[in-house]
Design brief:
With 431 residues, chain A is of the alpha+beta class. In chain A, 48% of the residues lie in helices and 16% in strands. The longest helix of chain A is centred in the first third of the chain and has 18 residues. A seven-stranded mixed beta sheet of chain B has the order 1-2-3-7-4-6-5, sandwiched between helices. In chain B, strands 8-12-9-11-10 form a five-stranded mixed beta sheet, sandwiched between helices. Classes of the chains: A alpha+beta (431), B alpha+beta (421). Chains A and B meet through helix 1, helix 5 and helix 13 of A and helix 2, helix 4, helix 10 and helix 12 of B.
């Protein structure tokens, strides 16, 4: 391994080392990273929602995300911005409701203040309900044209018991929930969820010298409005499923195979798995790509991915291949054989340094994207670890003997996987 | 290396005097893994008769090719250096890109020189890659949105390369051989046809030397792009072209659009933004609010020649495609009826300029924005984009919208999900 890779590593760590954290009180934390950002600021607000007596948490979170998006985008001029341009995105992962606000503003603290006030106090109106339902279904429908995303959702549904609070809802479940929605109900959930949520704020951009103090004051003021749940494990991970299950995917010709991964990013086991996943199906040099696409020409698209655990959802080790239903059994069998081979033999010792090196590079790429940086800061707040923990762990893995490396990864490949396969007869889904 | 033009403090535009290779370097302070992208000005526009799909075939084949004087394949070398390396082909360009650690920059440049120098492949390589491309064709061209997009290009430009999928057709792909593909490579892969795009953290002068040492000695060849002028067909009298299959409902409307380097392109983009994103009455809000569909986006590809602008509406009801088209056209007419409000134009300009600046914080997206401008024949489209937007006043935007969205009716195609019997 060239020693110069370490220099790239160090450069990234030096950038992340300038991040500063604020912890004004229980359930609230903030991380600031000053960067030359073209006069812009990116704010990520993550709210880990508690259970309520409303609908399943995964449904309620999506409704709240749609409500916030509707309110904040419609009223941006008056609520969020005072002349600045901005864009806003919301997403839901498990019980985490995440808001990204990107603004062209020299005053990050003012934007943070306005965003948090808007989040806590956005009104719910009767005539918004149809739009909330439409936006909620619209956000879900974006995934339907992405085989990787759709397969991940289907796999996570399979991995969770039907009554688990963060089990990703189906489009039918969301539509049913939206039909019985009232403004009062939505208002109650909003208060209950948002006041009880654990709140993490990450801020990146051209930050003025007094930004940290001003945001600290804003967050301290916010404490009086809230009663956050005190533990961050209010939503239990699903129990591992020991059955090999099939489900007709129906809408895309994607074969998905996956299993839940309980480990946390930044730990040796998780980072070693990230490297193993890269070796398995991370690109043109990976085993699955070479065998199924290059040698056997059975698929055009094949990829493996390790999803991080987030919002009470487990991590997911996922392989996705795009193949017609007629070829699904053969492709599935070959992927399972490769997973089994990895469980039995791990990675070849000579490939481990390369796999680790490429995983470091993936991290550098991710940290060079604003959303990737914000995710990293949020992760450090969530787990109480310094930003860049994964990079540090990977540096240690480079020198780990192959046998020890393989001990870290093989258990993840030993259990049984769940799978989704394309349906031979597309007419089997529908209303 | 000589400076070609002033593209602002964050972007440098140079050319190697001896062979014409253009170099655009763009600086992003938080870029930890530089982007190396090479854009060749050749796409499916330039394919010979009987060579439909050659540009894309070549894109695949150059990865399988061997490095000069070595037996190592380009893909094998690249994947030891980069975790993210790929390529795309379109009507007017082919581009190759890799994300690398800064310390690997020289190695990746060496690979790109090898790719440019020659196509070191044999007949088995061509056969192997052909099989993969045929599988790609099945995968990509049957995906609902791609199917609709291809359908509309073919309907609007039946006599032009736009009307054919960039992946190619079975018969020409089956007939492609090593000699023909090598000849296509020789004609189009050389410095005068290429632009090297680097997105990096700092402008290190050593990188200029690195570029010169790798590309400076490559020979100069004459290359000019003469893509055929597209002429559009009439909108079919049947109105809506429909496809059935598994999936969600989708409706695509396609409007004729101007060439990407023409400033009327920005005018159309501004109007599309007003149409879709205006607070209160934009289609993205109103159609969703009234349950007509779940998502609306406008897509305006920046092409060297006139092309198409798409409105993509997904998650609607399959039996309401015609009504959706009427709603969209009504909204366009309503916006234009009493003269376009200058305040709306100013808002849209602000939104688009901000989105551009945000996009350019992501190194790969910034590289693609430069690539689009290069393919449209004017890097200024990237660097001076906010100024180009600012020059579009309400009257001009209205007149462009009238010409492209009202005087010419849209081509429309819908994807209807099959339902259980």
């Amino acid at each position: 391994m060239p020693s110069s890779v370490t220099d790239d590593h160090l450069q990234a760590m030096a950038v992340l080392a300038t991040a500063r954290s604020i912890h004004p009180g229980p359930g609230i934390s903030c991380c600031l990273l000053p960067l030359v950002f073209g006069g812009q600021v990116l704010i990520r607000v993550a709210l880990d929602l508690p259970r309520t007596d409303g609908p399943p948490l995964a449904v309620a979170a999506r409704m709240l995300a749609a409500l916030l998006h509707l309110q904040l985008t419609r009223d941006t001029r008056t609520v969020l911005a005072s002349g600045e341009e901005l864009s806003l995105e919301t997403e839901v992962q498990g019980n985490s409701l995440i808001v990204h606000l990107h603004a062209a503003s020299p005053d990050a603290a003012a934007i943070v203040g306005r965003l948090l006030r808007a989040l806590m106090q956005c009104p719910v109106r009767d005539n918004d309900l149809a739009a909330v339902a439409g936006m909620m279904l619209g956000q879900e429908s974006e995934n339907l044209f992405d085989p990787m995303q759709q397969s991940a959702t289907l796999l996570l549904r399979l991995l969770h018991p039907a009554d688990h609070p963060t089990r990703p809802p189906s489009a039918d479940e969301l539509a049913a929930a939206s039909r019985h929605l009232s403004a009062d109900q939505l208002s109650r959930w909003r208060d209950c969820c948002l006041q009880g949520a654990n709140l993490r704020v990450s801020v990146i951009g051209d930050l003025a010298a007094d930004t940290e103090d001003r945001i600290s004051t804003i967050l301290t003021d916010l404490l009086s409005l809230r009663s956050p749940h005190t533990t961050d494990d209010a939503i239990q991970m699903p129990a591992p499923i020991d059955d090999h299950a099939h489900q007709d995917a129906g809408r895309v010709e994607a074969i998905g195979i996956g299993r839940a991964i309980p480990e946390t990013p930044g730990t040796s086991r998780f980072e070693a798995l990230r490297a193993a996943c890269h070796m398995l199906g991370g690109g043109p040099r990976s085993r699955l790509f070479r065998q199924l696409r290059e040698r056997l020409k059975l698929v055009y698209y094949i990829k493996s991915r390790l999803h991080e655990p987030v919002g009470g959802l487990p991590g997911l080790l996922q392989v996705v291949a795009h193949a017609p239903a007629s070829r699904a059994p053969e492709v599935l069998e070959l992927i399972m054989a490769e997973l089994k081979r990895t469980a039995e033999h791990g990675l070849e010792p000579r490939t481990i340094p390369w796999a680790v090196d490429m995983t470091v590079q993936s991290q550098l790429i991710d940290l060079g994207i604003p959303h990737g940086l914000a995710r990293e800061l949020d992760h450090s707040l969530r787990h109480g670890t310094p930003p860049g923990q994964a990079l540090q762990t990977l540096a240690g893995l480079k020198t780990l003997p192959a046998a020890e490396f393989n001990e870290l990864i093989t258990p993840a490949f030993e259990g049984r996987f769940v799978s989704v396969v394309p349906d031979a007869a597309p007419a089997s889904f529908g209303e | 290396m000589i400076e070609v033009g002033d593209l602002g403090e964050r972007t440098r535009y140079c050319r190697i005097k001896g062979n014409g290779l253009r170099i655009i370097r763009h600086r992003i302070d938080h870029c930890l893994a530089p982007v190396v992208m090479i854009t060749y000005g050749v796409g499916s526009y330039h394919e010979p008769v009987g060579g439909h799909g050659f540009a894309h075939f070549l894109e695949h084949l150059t990865f399988r090719a061997r490095m000069t004087d070595e037996n190592t394949r380009i893909i094998d070398r690249l994947t030891t250096l980069s975790t993210q390396t790929s390529a795309t082909t379109w009507f007017d360009r082919t581009n190759y890109f890799s994300r690398v650690s800064p310390s690997r920059l020289a190695d990746v440049l060496a690979v790109e020189v090898a790719r440019m120098r020659g196509l070191n492949v044999n007949d088995d390589d061509v056969d192997d890659e052909r099989a993969i491309i045929l599988e790609e064709m099945r995968f990509v061209d049957t995906a609902p949105l791609k199917l609709l997009e291809n359908t509309l290009w073919a309907a609007a430009y039946p006599e032009h390369p736009y009307g054919r999928s960039c992946i190619g057709c079975d018969s020409d792909l089956m007939a492609a051989n090593t000699d023909a593909l090598s000849a296509f490579h020789t004609a189009n892969y050389h410095p005068g046809a290429a632009t090297l795009i680097l997105v990096e953290r700092v402008f290190d002068p050593m990188v200029d030397e690195l570029i010169m040492s790798h590309f400076g000695s490559l020979p100069a060849l004459e290359w000019t792009s003469h893509p055929p002028e597209p002429t559009t067909a009439d909108v079919p009298s049947s109105g809506l072209i429909e496809h059935d299959g598994p999936g969600e409902h989708a409706l695509l409307l396609a409007y004729r659009s101007p060439a990407g380097a023409n400033e009327t392109w920005e005018c159309l983009e501004i109007f599309a933004d007003i149409l879709v994103h205006s607070p209160g009455d934009g289609l993205a809000a109103t159609l969703v609010e009234h349950g007509w569909c779940q998502n609306v986006v406008a897509i305006l590809p920046r092409l060297r020649m006139p092309g198409l602008m798409f409105l993509v509406l997904t998650g609607g009801r399959p039996d309401q495609s015609m009504q959706l088209i009427e709603v969209v056209q009504r909204q366009i007419n309503r916006l234009l009826r009493d003269g376009l409000d200058p305040a709306r134009v100013a808002e849209a300009v602000g939104r688009l300029a901000f989105n551009h600046r945000s996009r350019c914080l992501d190194p790969l997206q910034a590289a693609f924005a430069i690539n689009d401008a290069v393919a449209a024949a004017d890097p200024d489209c990237f660097a001076a984009y906010p100024q180009r937007l600012a020059r579009c006043n309400a009257d001009r935007v209205a007149s462009v919208a009238q010409k492209h969205l009202v005087d010419n009716m849209p081509f429309a195609a819908a994807y209807r999900p099959q339902r259980a019997g």
